Amino acid sequence: MRVALPLLLVLTAAVGCQSKKSDAIVAASTQPTAGGMPQADAPMAAQGLSGKVLERIDASPYCYLRLQTARGEVWAAVPEAKIEKGTEVTIANPMLMTNFESKTLKRTFAEVYFGSLAPAGGIAAAPASAPGAPAGAPKGQMGAPNVPMEAVGKVDKATGADARTVAEVWSQKGSLKEKTVTIHGKVVKYNPGVMGKNWMHLQDGSGDAAKGTHDITVTSQDSVAKGDVVTIKGVVRVDKDFGAGYTYAIIVEDAKVAKK
Prior knowledge:
It contains two helices and eleven strands. The protein is mainly β.
């Protein structure tokens, strides 16, 4: 929500699709990897996936596209975008996921490629993180799109032996690797249901925006909303690579969320 984000997510922001609900996508029958992620394959990550749009289904925060490609009809999912039927598109950094269920659509896709729309004229290398994104933000779009540039006032630090500010997690990341931390902060970005997880960016007014140490990416099964002030407790992962170009210098995973 490099998904991004992904990650998938990392996983950057597009606009367009109309939907009244967020789409929670969960792995229905994929086998988990050692890191807890469903198995994924990205056989076309280098050249992208190109084809004509035969059908578009809106399910915020994604658009599902049925494409006519050189290898036949395939489904792809990209961040919200207004795409007309008959348009020729290229999906950058496509990651294949199998047996994914869209709760909004009440439909399971046997195969769907998650990625981002390449600019007109072809596919380029995965874009670098946008200005203002933390150093750990993904170069891809899945899971964790760009961090918004907004002023977050100082949020009181959590309590307890494992309590840390966002800046402290960054500065102590070496010693905190694979350890549990508790952070109290404001949700500035939220992407639900990406690769079976909810992704959020958390800020507490600490850190340096120019260096990217003001923001931390968190994954959880708990739901939040942008603007919520929450306390999260999760495990710090360092140099986390979700594959297909979605890499984080630091991320807090499997967090439990308590709202203010």
